[in-house]
Q: What sequence folds into this?
C-alpha cells in the first residue's frame, strides 16, 4: 500500500454562465491586467489516496468524483495523481 | 389528521419553522433524524431549509447520502408528497429527485429579502389551494439559488408545465428585481413529472402569519392538508 | 524536581525539556511589565515556567483582566428588579413575562477583522453566539455595529465588503436572524475598523446555568472542534523559540466553522436542559486557559488538566500552544463522572467529541500536566483576580477642547434643500439595505420588525409579549463631549426601542477606545462611561455586561471613541408594535419634543459645511424619559400608525425616512408640512438639521389625534401638529417664508443607492473569487 | 504576443482549519472511501494571459494572484502555465 496525493480540478461546464469568473475577470481588468481573459473559477480539491498502485489510486479518485466531488449536471473535472 | 415528517439534517435551521407551519395548518407533524431509516408512516415529507453539513462542497451534496434519503426516495417513488424548501430544494436536485441544480447567486452575495412570485402550477399537493397565476410575496434567503439545467431539460420543464413558482417584478415603481439570483427562466420552484415532488427557493413557512407581515405562504401547508384528506376520503 | 523553584516556593512546576528560558526579553514579549512580573514571582515564590508565563500573559492581558477599566466599570448601575444575572457571567440575563428570560451580550472583534475581515467578523459572531447559548439560552437574534474609514478608499471598501460577508455567512448558516445594527464611516477608523457583534437569546428562567465549576472530583470535558495553533498568543516569537521550521505552520488567523457551531449550539442546549452537566463555558479569548481558570475561580475550586489529553488538530503541540490556542467552536464542560457516558452520547448524536481532559480539585490550584509532568501550578483565585489594576491619568486633549469651542462652521457647499439630498447620500445616514440584504433576517419565522426599523422586534412563539433590540452610538458626539455623548448614545438606543412601543429593559455595552495609557483617551473613556451610567440610572436600564476594547489606534492616532450601546426592550403585547414609516394617506403628522436648533456636532455641519465641532445640544434625560413614556403608552393604547426617532440629520432626515417608507414599500407617499410654528425663534437650518434628542416624528389616524395630544400633555411632552400624510409623492416643508419641496421617489433613489453605488467598484472584494 | 492558458490553484494555508476539507473527508469515509485522507478544498482558477513569452505570462499571473486571486493572509497558490 502506498499513499498518492491526488489533485482534482472541478470546473463549471463550458457554456454555463460563470458569474464568479466574470467578476474576477472584471476585477483584473479594473486593476490594469488587460491581458487577462476567459477566466473560469472552480474548485480545487487535494487528497491522499491509499492504493496498491498509481492506476488504482486514479480509478478510486475517479469514483469519488463521480459520486460526490463533482456534479455531473453542471461540472467537469480533471484529475492528476502526483508523481514523486 | 395527516402526518408530516420534517427531516432534520445536521445544519438544518428551518426545521422548527416548517414544523410549526405544518401544525398550524392542522397536520400531525414530527421530526425524523437524518440517521433514521423510515418515515414512521408519514403521509407527507418536508425537507426544510438550512445549511445541511454546512453546505460544504455544494449545498445538498452531502445530505443527499443521509440514510433517511433512501426512505424519502421510496416515499417519492410511490407518489407520496415531498416538499423541499431552499436547502431542501437543493437536496432534492442533488438526489436527482428533481432535475437541474442550484448554483451560487449571480450577484455572488447571499440574498435575504421579500420577492414576488406567481403560482404557475396548481396540480401539486402543495399548491392546490392557490389560484393559477396567483401572485405571492415570500421571503428568500439563500446564497445558492440560481436554478440551472441543460437547455433541453428547461424546454421540457416549460412544456410539461412543471414550473411551480416563477419570480416576477412587483407592481410599477417597485424596488424588486425580477429575479434575485439569476435563475434560468426566472424559475423559483419546480416539480417532478408526476407533480408529487416539489422544490422551491422561497420560504412559505416564514410568510404564514399576519404578525410577520406576510401571509402568502400558508397555502403551501393548507394545500397539502386538503389533498391528503381528499385522497383519504377517495380511498374509503 | 523543580529546577526553577526557589526557597519558599508556593507551588511546584517544572519546565518542559527544551522550552525557552524565562529571560527579561521573553517577559517583555509577553507584555508583562516589571510590577506584574514581580507579583507573579511573589505569588509563586519562584520563577514561573515558560508555560506559566504564557498563562499569566493571557489572563493578565487587557482583554481578560480589564486592568485599566475595572474601577470605571464599577460605577455602572447593574441592579434592578428585572436583573437575573448582571456583569461577570458570559452574558447578562433579564426577566421577561411568562417564565421567560433574555440573555444578551455584545463583543468586539476589531483587530482580527483588521487583519482578515471575513474570518475576523465571522469568528466574532461565533464567539458572541457561544457566550449566549452557554447560559442555556437559544440565540434568537443577532445585531452588529460596524465602523470603517470612508468608502472612497479601496482598502476600506475591501474591509467593509469582507466584514459584511463574514458576519452574514456565519449567522446565516447557524440560523439566527440579524434584526438590526448600524454602520458608520469616518476617517478616524481608517486602518482600524470596528466590528461589534451582539447576540440575544431566550431561555426559560429555570434553565439558566452559570459557568462556575463545582464538586471536587468532577470531570472537565473538551467538547467540539479539535485544538489547532490558531491565534496563539505570542506565537510569532514562541514559534522561533520552539522550532525554526514550524514558523510557517503557525497561522494567527482563526477560521470559523459555523456548521460545527450549529451542532455545538444544539448539543449544549440539550446538555443543559437535560441537567447532565454542572457548568459549561466557551473557550474564547485565551482559550482553554481562561475558560478553565475562570470557571474554577467562580466556583472557588482548583482544576487540573492534562494537555496531552486535549484532542489536537496538529502534531506535536506543546502545553503552551494547547493552553493558549484560540481555535473556534470549542466548549469546556464540567460534569459528574457518572454522567460522562451520557454526555458523550448526546454529543455523538450531534457528531461532536466530548473528551475528558481533567478534573476539579480541592486545593484551589490551577494545575496543568503534560503526560503527567506538572508544567503549570498557580493559585487559581489570585491568577484570575490579582492582576495589578491601573488608574491612568485622564486629561482632555487640547485639540478636542479647541474643536468643541470652535464657532465658525464655514460655508455650506449646498443650499438647505440640496443639503437633505446630500445627507441622504452620506453612507453613514443612507439606507443600509446593501448590508442587511446579506443577512438572513427572517429565519426562525419570528421577525416582526426587520432591519430597517428603528429597532428590530421579534415575537416569542406561544407568548404574548415581544422583544425589541437595537445598537447605537454617535461617535462624533462622544469625540466632542464624551460625557454628553455617552448620555446621547444610551438615549438614542432607548428612543429607538420606545418608538416601536417597547419599554427599555437594560443594556450591554462595547467600549471601543484607543490606548488608555494616553491621558486624552482615558479621559474620553471615563467621561463617556459617566454619561452612560447617568443615562442608565435615569432610564432604569441597568448595565448587564459588555466588553472593553482598548488600543484601537489608527495611523492617524486613536480611533473616534465608540462606546456602542446594545439595548433590549419589552413589548408587553407584540401585536402593538409600531412601524417606523408613514403608513397611509390622511394620517396626521406630529412632531413630539422640542428643539433648540443647536447645530454643534451635527451631521449637517460635518457633511455640508465639512466642520466637525461646536457645542452639541445637552441631553435632557428628564425629557427623554417623558418621551419614552409617551411613546410606549401611545403604542399600548394603539394610537400610533408610525413613530420614528430623530437622530443623525435631525428633523429633515427623520421626516424624509418616514415618507420614503421601508426598504421594500411599493408606491410612494408624500407629506406637506408646516413647521413655522414648531420653533418660531430658531433659524431654518436649525429647525431642519439640528440634532436635539428627545424627539420623534409620529403619525396617527384623524380619529386618534385628540387622544394623542391629550396623552402628550399628560406626559409633559411638547407635541406639534405639522400636517398630513398625502398620496402625492412629494415632501413639502414650510418654514416661515421658506418652502422646500422634494420628490419622494428621487429621495428614495439617493437614499437606497448611496452605498451600492460606492460599492460597485470591481475592486470591492479582492475575494470576489472566494 | 501569444495567448497562454494559466491554471491557478488557491489552497487554504497549511495549518489553517479547513472546515470544507474536513466535511468532504468525513463524507468520503461515510461513502466507503476509507482510503481517502488529508482532504483540502480550495479554488481552481483558469485564465488566458496575453504575453510576449511564457515567463512574462507567468510573472503577470503571479502579480494577479498577489493582488487579487489569492488572500495573502490565509491562502497559498500554485501556478502553472499550459505548454502547448
Ligand atoms: N450592520 C447592520 N446590520 C443590520 N441592520 C443594520 C445595520 N446597519 C444599519 N441597519 C439597520 O438600518 C436601519 C437604520 O440604521 P440607523 O441609521 O442606525 O438607524 P437609527 O439612526 O434609527 O439607529 C436600522 O433599522 C438598522 O437596524
Ligand atoms: Mg443608529
A:
Amino acid at each position: 500500500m502506498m499513499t498518492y496525493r491526488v489533485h482534482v480540478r472541478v470546473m463549471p461546464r463550458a457554456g454555463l454562465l460563470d458569474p464568479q469568473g466574470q467578476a474576477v475577470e472584471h476585477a483584473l481588468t479594473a486593476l490594469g491586467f488587460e491581458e487577462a481573459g476567459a477566466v473560469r473559477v472552480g474548485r480545487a480539491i487535494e487528497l491522499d489516496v491509499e492504493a496498491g498502485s498509481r492506476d488504482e489510486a486514479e480509478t478510486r479518485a475517479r469514483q469519488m468524483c463521480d459520486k460526490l466531488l463533482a456534479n455531473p449536471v453542471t461540472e467537469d473535472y480533471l484529475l492528476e495523481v502526483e508523481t514523486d | 389528521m395527516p402526518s408530516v415528517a420534517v427531516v432534520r439534517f445536521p445544519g438544518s435551521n428551518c426545521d422548527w419553522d416548517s414544523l410549526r407551519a405544518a401544525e398550524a395548518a392542522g397536520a400531525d407533524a414530527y421530526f425524523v433524524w437524518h440517521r433514521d431509516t423510515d418515515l414512521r408512516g408519514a403521509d407527507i415529507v418536508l425537507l426544510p431549509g438550512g445549511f445541511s453539513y454546512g453546505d460544504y462542497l455544494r449545498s445538498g451534496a452531502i445530505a443527499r447520502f443521509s440514510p433517511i434519503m433512501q426512505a424519502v426516495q421510496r416515499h417519492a417513488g410511490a407518489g407520496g408528497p415531498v416538499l423541499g424548501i431552499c436547502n431542501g430544494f437543493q437536496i432534492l436536485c442533488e438526489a436527482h429527485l428533481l432535475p437541474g441544480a442550484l448554483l451560487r447567486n449571480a450577484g455572488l452575495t447571499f440574498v435575504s429579502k421579500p420577492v414576488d412570485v406567481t403560482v404557475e402550477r396548481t396540480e401539486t399537493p402543495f399548491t392546490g389551494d392557490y389560484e393559477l397565476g396567483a401572485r405571492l410575496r415570500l421571503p428568500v434567503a439563500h446564497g445558492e439559488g440560481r436554478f440551472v439545467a441543460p437547455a433541453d431539460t428547461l424546454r421540457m420543464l416549460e412544456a410539461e408545465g412543471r414550473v411551480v413558482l416563477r419570480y416576477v417584478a412587483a407592481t410599477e415603481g417597485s424596488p424588486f428585481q425580477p429575479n434575485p439570483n439569476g435563475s434560468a427562466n426566472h424559475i423559483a420552484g419546480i416539480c417532478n413529472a408526476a407533480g408529487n415532488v416539489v422544490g422551491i427557493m422561497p420560504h412559505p413557512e416564514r410568510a404564514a402569519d399576519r404578525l410577520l407581515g406576510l401571509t402568502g405562504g400558508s397555502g403551501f401547508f393548507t394545500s397539502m392538508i386538503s389533498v391528503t384528506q381528499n385522497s383519504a376520503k377517495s380511498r374509503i | 524536581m523543580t529546577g526553577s523553584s526557589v526557597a519558599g516556593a508556593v507551588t511546584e512546576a517544572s519546565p518542559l525539556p527544551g522550552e525557552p528560558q524565562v529571560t527579561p526579553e521573553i517577559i517583555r514579549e509577553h507584555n508583562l511589565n516589571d510590577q506584574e512580573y514581580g507579583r507573579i514571582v511573589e505569588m509563586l515564590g519562584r520563577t514561573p515556567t515558560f508555560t506559566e508565563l504564557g498563562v499569566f500573559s493571557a489572563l493578565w492581558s487587557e482583554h481578560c483582566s480589564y486592568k485599566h477599566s475595572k474601577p470605571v466599570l464599577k460605577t455602572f448601575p447593574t441592579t434592578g428588579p428585572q436583573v437575573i444575572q448582571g456583569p461577570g457571567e458570559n452574558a447578562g440575563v433579564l426577566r421577561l413575562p411568562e417564565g421567560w428570560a433574555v440573555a444578551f451580550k455584545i463583543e468586539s472583534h476589531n483587530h482580527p477583522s483588521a487583519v482578515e475581515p471575513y474570518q475576523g467578523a465571522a469568528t466574532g459572531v461565533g464567539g458572541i453566539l457561544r457566550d449566549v447559548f452557554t447560559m442555556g439560552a437559544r440565540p434568537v437574534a443577532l445585531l452588529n455595529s460596524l465602523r470603517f474609514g470612508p468608502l472612497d478608499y479601496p482598502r476600506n471598501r475591501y474591509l467593509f465588503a469582507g466584514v459584511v460577508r463574514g458576519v452574514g455567512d456565519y449567522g446565516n448558516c447557524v440560523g439566527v436572524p440579524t434584526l438590526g445594527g448600524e454602520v458608520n464611516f469616518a476617517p478616524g477608523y481608517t486602518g482600524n475598523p470596528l466590528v461589534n457583534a451582539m447576540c440575544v437569546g431566550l431561555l426559560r428562567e429555570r434553565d439558566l446555568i452559570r459557568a462556575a465549576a463545582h464538586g471536587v472530583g468532577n470531570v472537565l470535558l473538551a467538547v467540539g472542534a479539535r485544538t489547532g495553533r490558531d491565534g496563539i498568543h505570542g506565537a510569532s516569537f514562541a514559534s522561533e523559540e520552539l522550532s525554526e521550521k514550524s514558523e510557517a505552520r503557525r497561522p494567527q488567523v482563526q477560521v470559523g466553522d459555523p456548521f460545527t457551531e450549529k451542532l455545538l449550539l444544539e448539543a449544549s442546549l440539550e446538555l443543559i436542559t437535560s441537567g447532565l452537566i454542572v457548568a459549561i463555558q466557551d473557550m474564547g479569548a485565551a482559550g482553554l486557559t481562561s475558560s478553565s481558570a475562570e470557571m474554577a475561580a467562580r466556583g472557588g475550586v482548583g482544576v487540573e488538566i492534562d494537555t496531552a489529553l486535549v484532542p489536537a488538530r496538529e502534531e506535536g503541540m506543546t502545553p503552551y500552544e494547547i493552553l493558549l490556542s484560540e481555535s473556534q467552536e470549542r466548549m469546556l464542560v464540567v460534569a459528574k463522572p457518572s454522567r460522562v457516558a451520557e454526555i458523550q452520547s448526546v454529543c455523538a448524536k450531534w457528531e461532536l467529541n466530548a473528551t475528558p481532559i481533567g478534573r476539579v480539585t480541592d486545593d484551589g490550584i490551577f494545575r496543568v500536566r503534560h503526560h503527567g509532568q506538572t508544567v503549570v501550578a498557580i493559585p487559581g483565585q489570585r491568577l484570575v483576580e490579582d492582576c495589578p489594576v491601573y488608574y491612568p491619568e485622564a486629561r482632555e486633549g487640547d485639540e478636542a477642547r479647541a474643536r468643541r469651542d470652535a464657532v465658525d462652521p464655514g460655508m455650506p457647499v449646498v443650499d438647505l434643500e440640496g443639503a437633505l439630498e446630500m445627507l441622504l447620500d452620506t453612507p453613514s445616514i443612507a439606507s443600509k439595505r446593501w448590508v442587511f440584504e446579506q443577512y438572513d433576517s427572517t429565519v426562525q419565522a419570528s421577525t416582526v420588525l426587520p432591519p430597517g426599523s428603528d429597532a428590530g422586534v421579534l415575537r416569542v412563539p406561544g407568548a404574548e409579549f415581544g422583544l425589541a433590540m437595537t445598537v447605537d452610538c454617535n461617535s462624533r458626539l462622544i469625540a466632542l463631549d464624551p460625557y454628553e455623548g455617552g448620555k446621547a448614545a444610551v438615549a438614542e438606543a432607548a428612543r429607538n426601542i420606545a418608538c416601536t412601543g417597547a419599554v427599555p429593559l437594560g443594556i450591554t455595552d462595547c467600549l471601543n477606545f484607543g490606548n488608555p495609557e494616553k491621558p486624552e483617551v482615558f479621559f474620553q473613556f471615563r467621561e463617556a462611561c459617566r454619561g452612560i451610567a447617568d443615562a442608565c440610572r435615569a432610564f432604569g436600564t441597568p448595565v448587564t455586561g459588555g466588553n472593553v476594547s482598548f488600543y484601537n489606534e489608527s495611523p492617524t492616532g486613536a480611533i473616534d471613541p465608540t462606546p456602542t450601546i446594545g439595548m433590549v426592550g419589552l413589548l408587553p403585547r407584540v401585536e402593538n408594535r409600531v412601524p417606523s414609516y408613514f403608513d397611509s394617506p390622511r394620517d396626521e403628522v406630529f412632531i413630539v419634543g422640542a428643539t433648540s436648533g443647536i447645530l454643534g456636532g451635527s451631521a449637517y455641519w460635518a457633511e455640508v459645511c465639512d466642520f466637525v465641532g461646536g457645542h452639541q445640544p445637552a441631553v435632557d434625560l428628564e425629557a427623554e424619559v417623558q418621551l419614552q413614556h409617551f411613546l410606549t403608552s401611545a403604542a399600548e393604547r394603539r394610537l400610533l400608525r408610525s413613530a420614528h426617532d430623530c437622530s443623525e440629520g435631525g428633523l429633515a432626515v427623520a421626516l424624509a425616512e418616514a415618507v420614503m417608507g421601508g426598504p421594500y414599500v411599493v408606491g410612494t407617499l408624500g407629506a406637506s408640512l408646516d413647521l413655522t410654528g414648531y420653533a418660531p425663534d430658531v433659524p431654518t437650518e436649525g429647525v431642519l438639521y439640528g440634532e436635539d434628542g428627545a424627539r420623534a416624528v409620529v403619525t396617527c389616524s384623524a380619529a386618534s389625534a385628540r387622544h394623542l395630544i391629550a396623552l402628550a400633555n399628560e406626559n409633559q411632552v411638547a407635541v406639534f401638529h405639522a400636517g398630513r400624510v398625502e398620496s402625492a409623492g412629494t415632501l413639502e416643508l414650510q418654514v416661515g417664508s421658506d418652502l422646500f419641496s422634494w420628490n419622494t421617489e428621487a429621495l428614495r433613489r439617493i437614499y437606497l443607492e448611496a452605498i451600492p453605488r460606492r460599492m460597485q467598484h470591481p475592486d470591492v472584494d479582492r475575494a470576489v473569487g472566494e
In short: The interface with chain A takes residues 57-58, 61-62, 65, 93-94, 99-101, 103-108, 148-150, 182 of chain B (CB under 8 Å). The first helix of chain B runs from residue 15 to 24. The helical segments of chain B are 15-24, 68-77, 87-94, 151-159, 218-235.
